[in-house]
Write a structure and sequence with these properties.
Blueprint: H1 3-18, E1 28-32, E2 38-42, E3 56-60, E4 65-67, H2 77-85, E5 91-95, H3 98-106, E6 127-128, H4 138-148, E7 153-156, E8 160-165, H5 168-190, H6 200-210, H7 213-226
Parallel strand pairs: 6-7
Antiparallel strand pairs: 1-2, 1-5, 2-3, 3-4, 5-8, 7-8
Bound molecules: zinc ion.
Length: about 230
Amino acid sequence: MSDGLRDEVALGCRILATEDQGDFVWGHVSARDPAGRGVWMKAAGWGFEEIGREEVILVGWEGEVLEGDGRRHIEYPIHTELVRARPDVNAVVHTHAPWSVAFASTGQPLRPVSHEGTLFVPPEVPRFTRTGDLILNAELGSDLAATVGDRSAALMVNHGIVTCGADVTAGVIAAVLLERACRTNIRAIAGGGPASWSSDEEALSKRARCWSPELQRQAWDYLARRAGG
Ligand SMILES: [Zn+2]
């Protein structure tokens, strides 16, 4: 029953590898267990590009490994607490996305310079600033979930990103687009700008036009083909 979900989580990991969001063996994708036991999550010790179905394990609400072989990541509370806090969220991504980390450190607001940024702005992307250290317990995970609020992403300053969605596609595409948006902002800053970006009205219009669930699915399908299916 869970094989399809495990395959999706694994493919999400491999897509993030092709987007250069891997950090050695750190960073993870998870999906809510349909039976309510916790989250199906990438196992520890593997890089994103190495993940197949067997490297996706069921992690319970308190971090216990309930199914599958492998160790769980110590930052599992990022996933369990966000899924616990958000009934509408069925997938969570956490990576140490390098452009996003660099961008968040500038303290500058994310501008919708390109299409990608319009998925998130307006309003400004939430920033988790309580710590740049690891999220090792439920209390920190819950605090991070509160920072995300009802949004699909947050910048974890001096650490990485967290994104979420109604399914693995939405969670992974949000991670891909946030990192690309931060990369574009860094490039614009490096070029002395940005001097222009979409107004709130235009950004919201582009969000609906460019990033509907159907177009997000098309982007996922392309990334999946590029990642080898
Ligand atoms: Zn981390």
